[in-house]
Amino acid sequence: MSADDVTRAPSALDDRAAEGERSVGELFGARLGPLPRTHLAQVVHRADHGRSTLGPNGTWNYWWQAHYLDAVVDAGLRALRTGDRAGAELRARRGDRLLATIRLRNGLRWVNAYYDDMAWLALATGRLRDLHARVGRTARHRRLASADRQLTAQLRSAHTDDLGGGLFWNRARDFKNSPATAPAALHLARSGATDEARRLLDWVYARLWSPQSGLVRDGIRLQGGTEVLVPDVWSYNQGTVLGALVELGDAESRSRAAALVAAVDAELTTDVAGARVLRTHGDGDGGLFTGILVRHLATAASPDSGLDDATRATARRLVHDTAEALWGGRAPLELPGRRDPSVFPVEPGGRAPRPPLELSPQLQAWTVLEAAATLT
């Protein structure tokens, strides 16, 4: 029996995750224009925000919506863990509406110009399909299967022999990087294409892994026929590589995963009130990066991960302490006529911002709180 099969009473960590879910929904949940039964997350909450809608031409950030869908699935799985089957079904239906609205807003198609965007949505769609299976809902599987089929085909089209392997970042095909390659590897590993996933990870370790830091660098650009290494280190790249390694689970992958957790602990943390917590990357796209890492650290910390006790303990500590620091910095935001939602700090140990609020750091905080709740 896996940890996911055990039903238990809600804990304080579950209550915190539920508050993250409620707050993000209150602050950012919106319809697409006047269309009923549509749902997306708006990018910014302003001080005069009411029950607003998203116009068909406004900013919406495809890949942020994919992570919003992932968080909705997290909430559904939390409901199952705590014996709330009706709550799990509610989140599965919400995920359906969100996924359908993503396709609608994207011009009635799944395809995007960026392969990393499509990898994120493929991962979230796969997890939504699993949530449906666990609650016995199969009515929407045709849409899920269509998304999976088209997104997987797009990812495979970007996996070429140029630069020795890996995935291109976008249709310009002049940049191969870990933000596209690692989530694609994780998606393929979850889909059973383990040999293909392993080839992608081997390319990451051959071309982008730094033996000095033990971390994964960003990518390689093609500039006038010359290869140019982009050495930037971002937390989310470590997370998706870690997730794919744990999913593969062979001896080499477990060894690499253990080393990567140790490198994250040594290189990507900062001290907050005597605890070593993960650094974040501000707002904008960077506002999601550490939440992605924490999601996969929680997987590594699970008894089902196959990793050694010391590695699992390190991963668990990083998840727990980062969640504690984000929770401790929260502050209520007054919304007339509604229970005040919580606003979470952009960085652990910081203060909660005031409106206008950006979606990404708030969604990140919710993701971190959900990850911590899995380790109860």
Structure, described:
- The protein is mainly alpha-helical.
- The protein has helices at 12-28, 62-81, 85-105, 115-135, 141-157, 178-190, 194-207, 235-248, 251-267, 289-301, 309-328, 359-373, and strands at residues 29-32, 40-41, 44-45, 53-54, 175-177, 219-223, 226-230, 269-272, 275-278, 331-332, 342-343, 357-358.
- The chain has a three-stranded mixed β-sheet. The protein has a three-stranded antiparallel β-sheet with strand order 5-6-7. Strands 3-12 form a two-stranded antiparallel sheet.
- The two termini are 16 Å apart.
- The model has no long low-confidence stretch (mean pLDDT 94).
Provide a compact summary of the structure.
Helix content is 54%, strand content 10%.
Largest sheet, strands/sense/barrel: 3 strands, mixed
The pLDDT mean sits at: 94
Shape: globular
Query: β content, as a range?
Result: 5-15%
Summing up helix and strand content along with how strands pair, one would put the structural category as: mainly alpha
Q: Radius of gyration from the CA trace? A: 20 Å
Question: Order of SSEs, N→C?
Answer: HEEEEHHHHEHHEEHHEEHHEEEH
The main sheet orders its strands as 2-1-4
Classify the helix fraction into a percent range: 40-55%
In DSSP terms, counting alpha (H) and pi (I) runs of 4 or more, how many helices? 12
| Termini Cα gap | 16 Å
Low-confidence stretches: none
- Number-wise, the strands total 12
